[in-house]
Give the backbone structure.
Amino acid sequence: QVQLVESGGGLVQPGGSLRLSCAASGTNFNVYTWAWYRQAPGKQRELVASIFKFGNTNYADSVKGRFTISKDNAKNTVYLQMDSLKPEDTAVYYCNRYGSNFWGQGTQVTVSS
């Protein structure tokens, strides 16, 4: 059974930083692409960033230059470093094994002064 557990969300002021973590279990972590999505109130879930098997990455235009996705294969963990946060980054952030129906429970990120 694949399980994904996100952590690291919270309330932060505009311009601040947060680091999200997603611990994966029950899957061969190293061979898959991993992704972070987010869903703001009243909006559809959107892809924020993805990291492929060999470490190359993709980002949504809205977060390029501010967010960094990474992974630690030894810890079966995916990270999302979020810098220069904006109020429009406020959302529930979800970890996903890309292309699958395996999702974490989500972690709330609120950017507000």
